[in-house]
Amino acid sequence: MTTQVIRNVAVEVEGDGQAVVCIHGLGGSSNNWTPVLSAFEGFKVVRPDLPGSARSALPTERLSIDLYVDTLAGVLSELGVTKAHVVAHSMGTIVAQHLAIKHRELVKSLALFGPLLAPPEQGRPGIQARAALSREKGIAGVQEIAEAILKGATSAETKAQRPVTIALVRESVMRQSPEGYAQSCEALAGAQAAEVEKISVPTLLVTGDEDGVGQPAAVEAIGERIAGSKVTVLSGCGHWTTFEKPAECADELKAFYKSMQ
């Protein structure tokens, strides 16, 4: 495994074969995918930290979904990747959908965990409030946000039985820089839905039965708009899908890639 800095983005690259590009969500990093790496055996795995997240620098341009899409396309170009399977979580699924439409030549398939088209209108002020809290209180504010996410975005089963998962979610959010996290929140709050009917590649949608962001009914509705897509709902799982149900997520990915062989 090597970590490179490409266009100010920290990118882990591992393996050979067809490329798989992994896009984390808000408060995430390349480590969102560490629990499911077994599903990518035989692939070239590309795991970036999005601009302003984790180890990647905050660019001078304000963060936005368009900036994420264009940055990822540029990173793939510099790596010589011309076609890739795309795997994404949460906010990253919005990025992936736009990437699949704007750069359709790059995307071979989509596997979307805790997916959403865009935040609901009633949810946008809350995301903006998170940005304000992160700026106002700095690292203390980010910690406060992490604690709220643990309560609201993980399943009852995870809270009761998976203390390491709880620690991992907490660490993932708390390691974000306050300004980077604030701008990431603003990027999500300003996100607009992609025209997903234009997506024509094999698509897997995975969510949890207790996911309040990628709610099962909403994910089923997305699946109805993407021709030939498959929807899976995992029991006892909240929004941090690959952290809460890693074995099940890996199995879903393995079966998905096998179906395309």
Could you walk me through the main structural features you see in this protein, from its secondary elements to its overall organization?
Helix 3 (124-137) runs antiparallel to helix 4 (139-153) and helix 4 packs antiparallel against helix 6 (163-174). The chain has an 8-stranded mixed β-sheet with strand order 1-2-4-3-5-6-7-8, sandwiched between helices. Helix content is 43%, strand content 17%. By secondary structure, it is of the alpha/beta class. It has helices at 65-78, 91-102, 124-137, 139-153, 156-161, 163-174, 178-189, 216-225, 241-244, 246-259; strands spanning 2-6, 9-14, 19-23, 44-48, 84-89, 107-113, 203-208, 230-234. The longest helix has 15 residues, at 139-153. Strand 5, helix 2 and strand 6 form a beta-alpha-beta unit. It is built from 10 helices and 8 strands. The chain has one domain (2-119, 193-259): Rossmann fold (3-Layer(aba) Sandwich), CATH 3.40.50.
